[in-house]
Amino acid sequence: MDETEAPAPVAPPPVPRSIGERLRAGRERAGLSIAASAEKLHLDIKVIEALEADRFAELGASVYVRGHLRRYADFVGEPGAELVANYTALSARPVPPDLTQVPHPERRTDPRRLVTPLVGLVCAAVLLLAIWWVLSGSRPGAVQTGPVQTSAEPPTASAVTAESSLPPGPGDLAVAPPAAATPPPSAGGAPATAAAEVPPKREDPSPARETGLKLELTNDSWVEIYDARGGRLFYDVASAGSVHSVSGRGPLRVVLGNAAGVTVEVDGQARQIPANAADGEGARFVVNRSGSISRTR
Fold first, then answer.
1. Is 98 exposed, middle or buried (CB count within 10 Å of its CB: 0-12, 13-18, 19+)?
2. Average pLDDT for residues 86-111, to the nearest whole number?
3. Which distant-in-sequence residues (6+ apart) come within 8 Å of 220 by Cβ?
4. Res 198: pLDDT
5. Which of 80, 178, 186, 208 satisfies CB 3.0 to 4.6 Å to 73 for a cystine?
6. Spatial distance between the Cα atoms of 43 and 36, rounded to a whole number of angstroms
7. Angle at the Cα of 171 from the Cα atoms of 165 and 175, rounded to 5 degrees
């Protein structure tokens, strides 16, 4: 009887790794820490941690995510174009519905629950009205100081003459209202006003001058440009052969990942990047309002 060999077990296909796992594996193969990678790429450590943990929503818009992803993948030896394509397909998936926004039936209030508070308010109002009525009725009336006439007969002429000869009482004297106080006249003869008129402030109509910056790239380079208020004017990977022009309120702060492949123009004038502004392959400098370029302090 021929003995047949048992088939060898087939190994299960490898489980596809996520984008962040591939980036972390590439960094570990290169023998780099997160802090060292962030320092070489001039990035924040939180950006590296978010990329390796697949927390792409923390990096802002998708254009920023793709720029960070391509640059970091090329740095750790992973295919940047493939990972960017995977991220694009992942972000294009439909978002699951939010079950917290499902409409619920409106709860109707039982009108019988409002009867008890309403009756209590009516009783309290009636009780307060009764107390006020009792207190107002117990006040003493006006005291009559003149002679009281007990008979219905009209007074005689002698009584009228005697009453008219009496001196007037304190209640018969008319009190004249006090005269209104007149403000003293000013030195020019016109009455002084209560408050001096304050002239309105005049606003400066001249707008703030903006500085124009133009970058021409011969090689791929990471570019960051901020205005005087910290506003982000440009934040992405610029490809070779591209030209980018921005304008903003100076001084402008610029970060270049590959300064050797970038030509700078300020307000139409060609400018040279200072040698002391170079930081390895990159450069950090400031474009002043006068158009000059100086190293970032």
1. exposed
2. 68
3. 237, 238, 239, 240, 258, 261
4. 61
5. 80
6. 10
7. 115
Specify the pLDDT at position 176: 47
- The yes-or-no answer to whether 19-91 and 210-295 have a common fold is no
Q: How far apart are CA 48 and CA 69, in angstroms?
A: 9
**Mean pLDDT of the region 12-22:** 72
pLDDT of the residue at 91: 79
The pLDDT score that the predictor gives to residue 216 is 92
Buried b (16+ CB within 10 A) or exposed e, 245-258: ebebbbbbbbbbbb
CATH architecture classification, 19-91: Orthogonal Bundle (1.10)
pLDDT at 243: 93
Question: By the 8 A CB rule, do 237 and 67 touch?
Answer: yes
Give the integer Cα–Cα distance in Å for 223 and 238: 7
* Residue 243 near residue 215 (C-beta atoms within 8 A): yes
Task: Classify each residue of 265-282 as buried b or exposed e, where b means 16 or more C-beta atoms within 10 Å of its C-beta.
Answer: bbeeeebebeeebbbeeb
Residue 107 pLDDT class (50, 70, 90 cuts):
low
The domains of the chain are located at 19-91, 210-295
DSSP states of 67-98: HHHHHHHHHHTS-HHHHHHHHHHHHTSPPPP-
| CATH number for the domain running over 210-295 | 2.60.40
Task: Give the SS3 label for residue 248.
Answer: strand
**Cis-peptide, bond into residue 199, ω within 30° of zero:** no
List, for residues 26-60, the tens digit of each pLDDT value: 999 999 999 999 999 999 999 999 999 999 999 88
What order do you get walking across the sheet with 210-217 strand by strand? Answer: 243-249, 210-217, 262-266, 269-271
The tokens 């009887």 sit on which residue?
1
Q: What is the dihedral of CA 121, 124, 130, 134, to 10 degrees?
A: -150
Tokens 């990096």 identify what position?
59
